[in-house]
Structure formats: C-alpha cells, structure tokens
Task: structure prediction
Amino acid sequence: MSLPLLFAAAAGDGPNPMNPEPWVAGTAVVVWLIALAILILKVWPVITKGLDERNDKILGEIKAAEDARSQAKQALAEYEKSLADAREEANRTITEARAEAQRVADEMKAANERDLAERMARAKSDIEAAKKAAVADIHDQASELASAVAAKILQREINAADQSRLVEESIRELDAAGV
Result:
C-alpha cells in the first residue's frame, strides 16, 4: 500500500484500503485459488519430482560412498594380507638363504678339513719316506765306514760277501739300539 492512500483513508476521503468492496475481495480470492490450483497441479509435481530426484541422487551417492568404503576396506585387507604374505616369503627366503649359506660353509669347512687331512697324510708319508731314505743312507754310510774301519783294522781288503755280512750285522745292531 502506498503512503498517500493511507493518509487519504485516515482523512476519510475516498475508499478505505483496509475495507475492500466485496467484488474486489471475491476476485482476489478467485485469483488466489486459481494461482493455488496452478501451483498444486503444475508446479508442485515439478518441485516434488526435483526433490525426489535430488533425494535419489543423494541416496545413490551415499550408497556409492558406502560401496567405495567397503571396497577400500576390502582392498586394505587384501593389501595387508599380501604384505603379510610378502613378509612371510621374505622371512622364508632369508631363512633358506641362511641355511644355504650355513650348508655351503659346512661343505667348505669339510672340504678344507679333508684337504688338510690329505696334506697331513702326504706330509707324514713324505716324512716317513724321507726318514727311511735317511736311515738307509745312514746305514749305507755306516756300512762303508765300518768296512773302511774294519779294513784298516785288519789291514786287508774286504770282499763283497764280507762287506754284506758286516752291513747286515751293523743294521741289526742299529735296529736293536733303536736308531
């Protein structure tokens, strides 16, 4: 309402806007009812359809989010399982590698011990052979020396049979003495 109309109504001049005539009020009610009917019949279904679509969209997004969350949980569980499997496989591989390293070390140690034992046996054999050769050499030198001494003592030449007999006697005496 405009301010001049209110002043005019208060002064008593002209129509009172607060008290309309019946035909104006009736027309206003009819227009209002027609507008309400148009709103109810045409606009309200569009609004409810839009709200329903929005509601369905929101529910769909919630369901999609729940599905995504479920898939994420499942993926996390699978990841944790595969991680645990990988750790187990790594531990098993490490254990196998340690066992293999220990086996190789044991084989190398055994091979070294066998080699050392063979070398020791060869060395003992070589020492024994050298000892026998040295003893034989000493016996030969001793027999020659004994022959030379005996020849000087007897002032005669000893023949091969006498020398052989004297050598054998000397060897027996040396063996008995532990030389």
